[in-house]
Design goal:
alpha+beta; 2 domains; 8-stranded mixed sheet; 4-stranded antiparallel sheet; 5 helices; 12 strands; globular
Length: 237
């Protein structure tokens, strides 16, 4: 689940929404989860980024990596809460997307579009302020196995693309593509579709052991960017 662009209810203050986000995630983690059938596992976010970069496939730039057992070449490592707070105050270039290394345990992706010095708070993608101490609480969730702090592409009016790929003996092929924005039914412009489909098929071929792949593609000034890939059982398509 993502909290990049939810609308703000008029009757709820921004600080209440930010607090609710923190509490909702922390409370959800304590609830037992029924085991679900799993296909071949998708790579975690660090392995995904490494695969994209190794094959020169466009993906978001990673600015920093928080509290991860792994390192990324050329990426600043943040090893403590104090380091993270200093970086978010003084070193970060906003907007940022915060992506958990592992999404299996309930940690969530969220964004911050600015830092407000007077309040020592970040501004979430929905416009709600959240204290940096609460941001760091989210980053420290053990189930996340660390967080990537990466560029947040300017949103496309239709929210980017979600593309489903099936693997066969002949390689990957696209079985479905749609705008991520609910209810959007505009046609995908041909030049944009050519670039996006080339990216998805090239990326999918790197993971031939995953029979069904769901790719999230952002549309930026640099062209399509591979934001991530998830594996799901075939019957869920």
């Amino acid at each position: 689940m993502s909290y990049i662009g939810h609308p703000i209810e008029a009757h709820t203050s921004g600080f209440t929404q930010a607090h609710d986000l923190v509490q909702r995630i922390l409370n959800a983690l304590s609830a037992p989860r029924a085991p679900a059938p799993q296909p071949a596992s998708a790579p975690d976010c660090i392995a995904f980024q490494a695969a994209m970069q190794a094959h020169n496939l466009p993906c978001p730039r990673v600015a920093a990596l928080f509290n991860s057992a792994c390192a990324m070449a050329g990426v600043r490592a943040l090893h403590s809460a104090a380091e993270a707070r200093r970086y978010l105050r003084d070193g970060a270039v906003y907007p940022l997307l915060f992506v958990p290394v592992s999404e299996d345990g309930g940690a969530e992706t969220f964004s911050a579009i600015a830092y407000e010095k007077n309040a020592d708070a970040a501004v979430l993608g929905n416009g709600a302020p959240i204290a940096l101490s609460d941001v760091v609480r989210l980053l420290e969730l053990p189930c996340a196995r660390g967080y990537l702090l990466q560029e947040l592409p300017s949103p496309h009016r239709l929210g980017g693309l979600r593309v489903t790929v099936a693997m066969s003996a002949h390689g990957p092929h696209i079985v479905h593509a749609a705008w991520k924005l609910a209810g959007a039914d505009d046609d995908i412009a041909l030049p944009l579709w050519k670039a996006s489909s080339r990216l998805v098929l090239a990326g999918a071929a790197l993971f031939p052991f995953i029979e069904r792949q769901h790719w999230d593609i952002a549309l930026s000034a640099r062209g399509p960017l591979a934001m991530g890939m998830r594996a799901q059982p075939a019957q869920a398509l």
